[in-house]
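Much of what follows relies on a compact textual record of a protein's fold. A record is reproduced here so that you can trace the correspondence yourselves:

. . .
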Amino acid sequence: MALSPDLLEILRCPEDRTRLALADEALVARLNAAIAAGKVTNKGGEPVREAVDAGLVREDGAILYPVREDIPVLLIEEGIPLAQLDAGESAS
């Protein structure tokens, strides 16, 4: 995914206004595996059923906002809490 550095510089988390960084490929792969297994919900409490092309991670590393078809989905309820990835792995 190619977000311009200028765009990445101005994008902020809609919830706490902190910076966002592009998620690395390993994190996106882990997230998509968990989505495929039906183990991911968003902040709105809805199951995430569609894989992400990329993601923007909040500065504190707690939330990932999906990027689909090169469009960042920066809605609070669409944010994906990343703690559930670790919880899912320890439960396996």
